[in-house]
Amino acid sequence: MNHPQPVVLDELPSLSKLYVNAAATAARRRVLGASTGKKRLPAVSHEVKGVRADVGNLTAYQHLVGETASDTLPAGYVHALAFPVSMSVMNRDDFPLPLLGMIHLRNKIEQLAPIQFAQDLDIRSWAENLAGHKAGTQLDVVSEVRAGSIDEVLWRGTSTYLAKGVFLPGIDKPGSPNGATGPSEFVPPNPTAVWQLNLDTGRNYAAVSGDFNPIHLSVLSAKALGLRGSIAHGMYLASRALADVGAVKADSFAWDVTFEAPVFLPARVALDITTLQTESGNWKRSDYVAWNPRSGRRHFTGSVTALA
Hints:
By secondary structure, the protein is an alpha+beta fold. The protein has helices spanning 15-32, 55-65, 75-90, 201-209, 219-223, 234-245, and strands at 5-8, 44-51, 103-111, 121-133, 136-147, 153-164, 193-197, 253-259, 267-277, 283-291, 298-306. Helix 1 links the parallel strand 1 and strand 2.
């Protein structure tokens, strides 16, 4: 695709305002019975310059997900910093899919260099790869974080989302997403950790990430969007797994996660982490899987792999 035309924003968008606007748009479409009629993604990127982490917010995030206190930004925290810019792209009037109710399928992140909390950062996001999915329509939202003083990408993330039940005209529906044959059979191993997630887990993560999507906040707000109860944020779960990998990981790494089944709150989540080493004994990769310890149903899988 052509490089998206940049739109520079004056400041980080307010996620709460974006969700309010998305709710108003959804209500208007229900009343009018109208769809967007669009089948193309906006050929623009949104960019905010000079973003700096708040040390109090960083500390609260580290405490919530179990990261060690540090001046270096965790990769999941950088995702949270970039998230409002990504959501502003998905909240545009010319965006073809509804923002509310969007399901997070996958995340692929490259942490290319450590980022210090005092650094000024430039964040750019755009959408690409609009495609059919057996359950609706999916797309990728890409974000890049650069050091404000130099033209160097420090962090890159691609989030894949699904608009469930939304089938755009002219977008073919495959037999299965991305040519996959479905989840493999899963036999739960002995867990290395078991998390106890309370009903307020979604609200607590929203407080540090700014992501107040109604599907995470309460049973009532989640039911209004078609779910039987509130669910944990995918990035909270993935970030907590990354924290459990621990300080063994390298300064630069690839972090992947695929979400399979939502975690309805409250919940217990079992986690297993398997660490692989090089012949010289250095850390190479950690694979992780999380599941419901009662039913054995897999929630998500992922890996953290050294890049250098």
